Amino acid sequence: MSESTIDGNILEGVSATTLWTLHNRASEAKRSDGVIRDPWAVTLFDAISYDYLKFGNPNQSHALRAVAFDTEARRYLSAHPRAAVVALAEGLQTSFWRLARHGVADELIWYSVDLPPVMALRETLLPHDDRIVALAQSALDRSWMDRVDAEHGAFITAEGLLMYLEPADALGLIRDCAARFPGGTMMFDSIPQWFSKRTVSGKLRLSDRYLAPPMPFSMSADEGEALAGTIPGVRLARDIAYPPGRAMFKIAAWPPLDRIALYRRGRPSITLLEFG
């Protein structure tokens, strides 16, 4: 390891999964035909020394997820340019700089929330910006809500977070966000039940060197849409389609597949909530 790199092994447990998503996103960004343009992800990837291949060969999944989140954030910020964006358990995401490149981050306030070791890594490797408020704490510590100025709107993201929480904690976080930020929006992704069960039973190995941590919370696309009728303050819930990628990822995003109930229940989902 050279003096210019940082040892990624300082991140442990669930926090280390941010290196998994970084591996996928940066590897995709390096491709000439990649589905995402993400220079800062590449910079982070190259600056952190880690055995990335223990996560298996890289794929498009997390890059496509990031593109879906970016698309909805751009739509919201175009209508609410001075909004607060709250990135819960942000990890090593670089969404802020991708949105800035699209010209929708000039007036916002960006609240980056994650545990202290992750925030220390972000502070070391990513550029300082006066628009970013760093909050080194758990997303479940609701004190972050007291820091958010939502006068001009709030767009809350939980990208790659809720599946690692217990169901009561995940639903409780959504419920509290709906109560605290009326008029705001929240976006999160979910895994299907079969995938969750494999992780909880310790059967999801990404390689012979890495066992995926338990992901006890699952939610199908239909269950996500049903939140509008079950959680007070959730005015609208929409299933957000993953953008098409290459090869099998392009086929998986083919809209007619979603008419097959078994497929719809068994695929990962992204849900966008609007709070009343």
UniProtKB/TrEMBL annotation:
Entry superkingdom: Bacteria
SUPFAM superfamilies named in the record: S-adenosyl-L-methionine-dependent methyltransferases
Protein name: Class I SAM-dependent methyltransferase
EC number, as in UniProt: 2.1.1.-
Organism: Mycobacterium deserti
GO biological process: methylation
Pfam families membership: LCM
GO molecular function term, any single one: methyltransferase activity
Keywords: Methyltransferase, Transferase
Cited InterPro entries: Ppm1/Ppm2/Tcmp (IPR007213), SAM-dependent_MTases_sf (IPR029063), TcmP-like (IPR016874)
Gene3D superfamilies membership: Vaccinia Virus protein VP39 (3.40.50.150)
